Every structure is written in C-alpha cells, then in structure tokens.
Amino acid sequence: MENKLTKRKAVEKIVFSILGLLMLSSIAVLGVIIFFIFKRGLGVISWEFLTSMPKNGMTEGGILPAIVGSFYLVSGAILVATPLGVFAAIYMTEYAKKGKLIRIIRIGVNNLAGVPSVVFGLFGLSIFVKYLNFGVSILSGALTLAIVILPTIIRASEEALMSVPDEYRSSSLALGATKWQTIKNVVLPAALPGILTGCILGVGRVAGETAPIIFTAATFFSMRLPNSVFSEVMALPYNIYALVATGTFPQKQIPIAYGTAVVLLVLVLLINLVAIFMRIKFSKKNTN
Amino acid sequence: MLNWKTKEKIIKNILLFFAFSSILFLTGIIIVLFKEGAPIFSKVGILEFLFTSDWYPTYDPPGYGIFNLLSGSIVVTIGAMVIAVPFGVASAIHIAYILPKKFKNIVKPTIEMLAGVPSVIYGLFGMKILGPFLREVFGLPTGLTALNAMIMLGIMALPTIVSLAEDAITAVPQNFRDASLALGANRLETMFRVILPTASSGIVTAVILGMGRAIGETMTVLMVAGGASLFPSNILKPVRPMTATIAAEMGEAPVGSEHYQALFGIAIILFLITLIFNIFADFAQQRFKKKVSGE
Amino acid sequence: MSKINSFVVVLALLLVAVMPFSVMAQEELTIQGSSTVLPIAQKAAEVYMEQNSDVNISVRGGGSGNGIAALIDGAVDIADASRFVKQAEVQAAVENGIYPVPHRVAMDGIAVVVNPANSVEELSLEDIKSIYTGEATNWSEFGGPDMEIVVVSRDSSSGTFEVFNEITLGKERLTKAALLQASNGAVAGVVSDTEGAIGYVGLGYLSDSLKAVKVNGVLPSNATVASGEFPIARPLFMFTDGWPEGLTARFINFILSAEGQALVKEQGFVPLH
Predict the structure, then answer these.
(1) Residue C22 reports pLDDT greater than 70
(2) Coiled coil where (chain B) (predicted)?
(3) Which of A90, A221, A241, A254 to probe the C interface (max C CBs under 10 A)?
(4) Model pLDDT, residue C23
C-alpha cells in the first residue's frame, strides 16, 4: 500500500514535470524569436534610421515614411472601428434581450474574427479600391483594417460593459435618468478603461497586419510623406515583406528589413504590455 | 424638442444598426467573394477546380486546378496542429492547474504575447533563421519547405490554443475538483478523469480556432513555404498553400480576368473552410457551457 | 462624464494627427510593375525628386502583369514591364478607354546562373528547356557532378518569367517542382546558397556568388546583349496611357536622356545609347 502510494506520487510528479517542460518551451520560443530579430536588427537602428527617408532604391537610408504610413493606417482604422465597435457592444449588452437576435449577432462577430486576413484584403480591393474608387490609398487601407479589428473591439467593449455592476444601472435609473442617460453618464465611464484596453490591443493587432494592406494601401518605395488620404503609403510590416521577399539587392536590404522588424516588434510588444497592465489594474479595481 | 421616449427609441435603433455591422461586413465579404469568384466555377467546373492539380493561370491554355494548393494548406495546417496541440494543451493544463496563482499572472500574458507578434515577423524568422537551419540539418536544397511552414504556424497557433484551453480548464467548477480529491483520487487522477473530460469540448474549441488561424495565415506561409505548387507528399519539399497563392498572384491579375476570378475562387474555398471551423468551434463552445453549468 | 469628454478629446487629437501635415501642392506620379525595371525606376525617381522638390513619385514592384493591369485599371501613370503588352491586355485596356504606349528604356539580358561550385559551364537552349520542364533532373546529364538539379524560377507574375518561358520553353509548362521566387534578388540568393540550383536573373544581378553559364556558346554581357548574340535578351519598357503629357512625359524624357541612361548603366543594365 505504501509502495503504491509513492509510485502514484512519482507518476504524478513526472507527468507534471513534463507538462511544465512543454510550457517552458512555449515561452522559450517567444524568447528565441525576439532574441534573433533583435540580434540581427538592433545594430541597424539609429536616430537617422528612424527619422530619414530611404535612399538609393531602399538600399540605404531610413524608414520614416513607413513609420508615418503605419501611424496613419492604424489611427484611421481605430478611428473608424472604435465608435462602430463600442456602439455595437452597447446594444449587445444593454439593449438586446437574450435570445435569437443576440445569438445571430454574436455568430456574426465570431465569424468575422475568423476570416483569413488575405480575404479582408480581397474585400478591400474589390470594394474600397475598385468599386468606391478610393484607389490604393491610406483611406482604402484604413477602412479594410478597421473591419479586421472590429471583432476585437466589440468583444473587449462587451466584456468591459458587462463587468460594470448592475447596481450602477439600477441606482441611476432609480434617480430618474433615462436608459441612454444611464449608459452615457454611468455605464460608459465605468467601462472606459476596459474599452480602452480593447482599443490598444486592436492597435497592436492592426499595426502588424500585412495581407490586408498589400492590395489596398501599401507601396514599396516613397521619398515623400503622404499628403492626402488618397496617397499610397509605405508601412512597417509591408516594408519587411517587400525587402525580404521581393527586394532586388538582398545584401543591403535584408539588414534594413531586420531593423524595420525591430521597430515593429518593439512597438507591438510595448502596446501589448500596456494593454496587459491596464487589464490587471482594471480587474483589481473592479474586484475591490 | 423631442419627447424623451422617442429619443430613446431612436438611439436604440441606431445602436441596433451598429450591432449589425459585423453581419453586414460578413455578408458583404460573402457577396464580393461570390460575385468576383463564382464565374470561374461555371467556366472550369467546380470539381475540376477542386480536384485537378494543374495550376498554370498565366499559360495559354491556362490551368485552374487547385488540388495541390488545397492539399498544401491542409497538410501544413495538420502539421501545425501536431506541433501546437501537445505544447498548447500541456501549457494550458500546467498554467490552469499546477502553476501557483502568482506565476500564472505572468506566464499566461507572456504566451499571449506570441499572438501579438506580427505574422510578417514570424515569416522573417522562418525564412532567414529557421530556413537555413533546416537546410543544414536535413541537407536540403532549400529550407523553405512544408515543414518550415508547419513549425512557424504551430508557433503562431500556440497562444490561441493555450489561452482558450486554459480558460476552459479554469472554468471547470471547483466543486468537481474537490469532490474527486475527497474521494481519494490524487491531483493527477483528478486531472485526467475529471477536469480534462469536463473541459474537453472547451479544449476542442481552442484547437479548432487554432486551426482556423493556421489555415488562414497568409504572410508567414507566403514567406516560408517555398511556393512550388507540388502535391505535399514530402514535408521536406516546398508547397504553395492557398493563402500564399492569393497574396502572391492577386496584384498581377487584371480585374475581371479568369485568373482574378480563380483567385477569388480560392478565397471562396478558404472562406468556407474557416466558416465551417468557426461554426464547429461555436457548437463545441455551446456544449462546453452547458456541461460546466451542470446540465 | 469628464472621462468621456477626455476620451473624445483624445480621439479628436488623433484625428488632427491623421490630417496630413503637408498641404503643399505636389505633383504626383505613380509607377508600378516589373521588378526587373524597378531598380531603374527607383533610381531615376530618386534623382528626379532630388532635382524637383515639388514632385512626389511613388514606385512599386510586383511584376509586369501587375503593372500593366494597374495601368489598365487607370490606377497608375506608368507601368514598368520587362515584356511587351499582350494582345488580351491591349483589348482589356481599349475596353477601359486606355491606350498603352510603350517606351523602351533599356536593354536586358537574362543570364542563366548556377552555383559557383557547379562545374557545368555551358548549356544549350534545349538543355535549359529539358531542365525547366522537369525532364532532366541530374547535373550528370550535362557533364556536371552527380547532383539533383534544383530548379529555381520567378513566379508567374514576373515579366522575366514570361520572356524566359517564351524563349526557352515555348509552349511547354514549367515543372511543378520549381521553387518560385518573387524577385531577381531572391533567385540570386537561392542559387548562391544552393549547390545544385539553376536560376535566371537580369544582367544587373550577376555577382561573384553566381556563375553565369554560356547559352548556345555565348556568355551574357552588355556587349553580347546589345549585339543580339546572346539568345535570351529583351528590351525593358515603360508603358503610359496614351502619349505622355506633363510630369509623366518629363519623367520618361529624363530616363531617356543621357543622364537617365547613365543611371540605367549604373544599375547594371544595357543602356539604349
């Protein structure tokens, strides 16, 4: 009996250690990827690299137009997707009754989230670039990206709104406020940190998206900053792809691709970190 | 001045419109895909399109058979799951069940960060670092192979699987666990006989969504899979998955041409596959919810 | 409420930031197409923009088919192409009310390259055909070492692919085992990394890490391409919609000028004069 017990204990220990090992390797993978990208790209980074124009057919110079281009695309996408997503979430949490309608809407959101990014690119190409004739432009790219992150923002906002305690609502209603006044003055402010976290996560996702902008917004080489929403732009993720896969002078261009990758990676990881901290802080506040 | 009741009603209807935006876009995508892509099915024949393997869109006469591309996508996705599922589910179990709470708050976000890394960076890594490594190890002509794509996609599907599977395991009610322990089972037995069976449909959801992510991934496979439209009979040879084909060829196809329609045709197939995945995931999710709420 | 207000303020600030900061009137020119012509177009655009600060030229690659398709759609001002426009493309263009006009900007030879470690020095057009159709799979058939041939090709969007295909393969189809690469640079990279590889690149991409083979007894060089001796050669084009005017005309004239042709030579192509 004693023997059997220790054996059971030993088996448990072994299995748990294997699980732990697999988990640690999952984390190690992230470390390995970040390490290699930094090792190869960090040396390229300089103030000049970040703030100057590309030169000599993207074989020298900096990536300023790509940074600016990505900034425009991401801001545009967030500006469009945030109101859309937040209003949708308000309806879903505050107005809709549990039942078929909400189920259909939720299936729609889930399926939109599962659409492959290249399919969004085709949609953007067909609707914004061709049908609405916006051309390959910041506008087409930002609108396409807005659809890509809409589900992320809806879900985050929904979660944030649902975590607002019901007493807030009932006390506001009891004081004679209408439903919309309650939402606007009580529920939304309480849910704001959660909604913001969702937006920040959306920014992180959208900054790295490449496939949706290949046909809708991106250009390989530009020596001027964009001057209207109808300009095509360079963008960080597309710049990496174009330099590595279609670059014509690999020896000179691949280091620039690594440099661009470091910039993008730092940006995206920072954004994710901020979102994580906000989430932790917010959840603490709510449980208190 | 509007009566407040009318005003409330108007606001409610405006919000309802916004709530339908996702469905609106989803419908829009379906309409666009079929409008642009369906003609190829009537020209080539849907069976011919799916089950012949000559993809020569720019030749005269052209070949529009996507069988090799479709099987490339499927094989790469299955391979990615073979890698991601053991690592992902094991990590999820460890985080949810074994790891002390204070570590959990560090480990889970760290793995979720993998989801934040842009696909093009995975592509760069696979192309320039993993590729040459695989070439050396296996003595291959090129490291850009189906295997490379499987590994990279496996890594990319990992955070989805870990995060959702962990949620599922954590959602198993505490009293299930307590009851099992009280009956004399140890933690390992409780895990295998009580927790995992209960969480299984939640874990299935996680895996299906991970598969959806892998099969729809574009930039990584475009960069690391090698791009030869071979039937994937050997994972050490290059393949050309559907997403990579669309991304590589779309720019060149004049609008409305057969090639353009054929690429939208591929997108229809891809969209339908992910749609089926999502519906299955949704179904498994519903089942899981019922199970843990104790019905 | 104040939280909501500050949220709105932040959004508004972002909106302002999104507004373009330069409202200065600029002339725009967009160029898209062949990755072979890309270095010429880029370099010329760069030099031209340095001389004319009120001009914004955006250059994209993606392949000849891509560029001409964009011209047909009216999406670009100039389409770079390393092949002539196809009959079907002219038809599609005319239906859209667009009249593609070719401008020859340079000459280019397509060099067939192998890894420097490969002992094979010469191939006939027939040999190249049997390799690229997948008929021949080992270098020993051509007097080389007993080594599997790794066929590297450009993907089908490339004009280099189409010209190479037409001259060497005729109507035959490329083997499915071919590794399809998106650019000259990528082909050069794979061939220089892979012992058994064969590929083809524009003359501008020849370097020490590649070995150009004689085709039908002729080594590719500026002289043999210009004289027409080297069999796999073609002119490079820029297509415009109708006879060019304004900035488009000035830019094309710049490339055709002595200064522009010097840039062509500097990028490793054969100048027209």
Answers:
(1) no
(2) none
(3) A221
(4) 42
Using the structure block, give the residue that is written with the tokens 């759609």: C73
Residue C176 has pLDDT above 70, yes or no: yes
Residue C160 lies in a domain: yes
Same domain, residue pair C229 and C239: no
- The rounded average pLDDT for each run of 10 residues, N- to C-terminus, in chain A (288 residues) is 75 89 90 93 91 81 91 94 94 85 89 93 92 89 96 92 89 88 90 89 90 87 79 90 80 90 94 85 62
Q: Is the peptide bond prior to B232 cis by the omega test (within 30 degrees of 0)?
A: no
- Residues of C in Cβ contact (< 8 Å) with B224: none
Q: Does C44 touch chain B (CB under 8 A)?
A: no
Query: Amino acid identity of B73?
Result: S
CATH of domain A60-287: 1.10.3720.10
Give the residue numbers spanning the domain of C227: 109-233
Among A75, A246, A250, beta carbon nearest to C18: A75
C249 shares a domain with C195:
no
Q: Does C252 map to a domain?
A: yes
In this prediction, residue A285 carries a pLDDT of: 59
Q: Which carries the bigger pLDDT value, residue A246 or residue C151?
A: C151
> Are A249 and A59 spatial neighbours (Cβ–Cβ below 8 Å)?
yes
Q: What are chain A's partners, defined as 3 or more CB pairs within 8 angstroms?
A: B, C
pLDDT of residue C21: 42
The residue type at C235: P
Nearest C-alpha in B relative to A19:
B90
Yes or no, beta carbons of A209 and B118 under 8 Å apart: yes
**Contact by Cβ (8 Å): A232, A186:** no
Chain C residues with CB under 8 Å of A64 CB are: none
d(CA B213, CA B281) in angstroms, rounded, equals 12
Q: State the pLDDT at residue C19.
A: 47
CATH code for position C203: 3.40.190.10
Ordered by start, the domain boundaries in chain B are 34-292
Element (H, E) at C215: strand C214-215
Return the CATH fold of B34-292: MetI-like fold (1.10.3720)
Contacts of C171 in chain B (CB under 8 A): 60
- In sequence order, the 6+-apart residues with CB closer than 8 A to the CB of C198 are C112, C113, C114, C131, C149, C150, C151, C152, C191
Same domain? C219 vs C120? yes
State the average pLDDT over residues C28-41: 86
Shortest CA distance from C169: residue in chain B: B59
ipTM summary value: 0.91
Tell me the nearest-neighbour CA distance from C65 into chain B, angstroms.
5
Which candidate, A151, A162, A137, A128, places its Cα nearest to that of A229?
A137
**The pLDDT value given to residue A136:** 84
Q: What is the C-alpha to C-alpha distance for residues B40 and B50, in angstroms, rounded to an integer? A: 11
Q: What mean pLDDT do residues C169-190 have?
A: 84
In this structure, the answer to whether residues C177 and C244 fall within a common structural domain is no
Q: How many domains does chain C have?
A: 2
CB contact under 8 A, C182 and A246: yes
* Rg for chain C, CA atoms, rounded: 22
- Do the Cβ atoms of B257 and C62 come within 8 Å? no
Whether residue A278 lies within 8 A of chain B, CB to CB, comes out as: no
Answer yes or no: is C23 within a domain. Answer: yes
**C225 plus C182 within the same structural domain:** yes
**How far A194 CA sits from the closest chain B CA (Å)?**
16
Q: How far is A128 from chain C (nearest CA, A)?
A: 13
Q: Which pLDDT does position C53 carry in this prediction?
A: 84
Residues C114 and C223 placed together within one structural domain of the fold: yes
Q: Are residues C139 and C128 in the same domain?
A: yes
Q: What is the pLDDT of residues C234-266, one digit of tens each?
A: 889 999 999 999 999 999 999 999 999 999 988
CA distance C178 to chain B (A): 6
Task: Give B52: exposed, middle or buried? Use CB within 10 Å, 0-12, 13-18, 19+.
Answer: middle
Question: Range with the lowest mean pLDDT among A129-133, A279-283, B150-154, B268-272?
Answer: A279-283
Q: Do A105 and B22 touch (CB under 8 A)?
A: yes
Which candidate in B6, B14, B16, B21 is best for mutational testing of the A interface (most A CBs within 10 A)?
A: B21
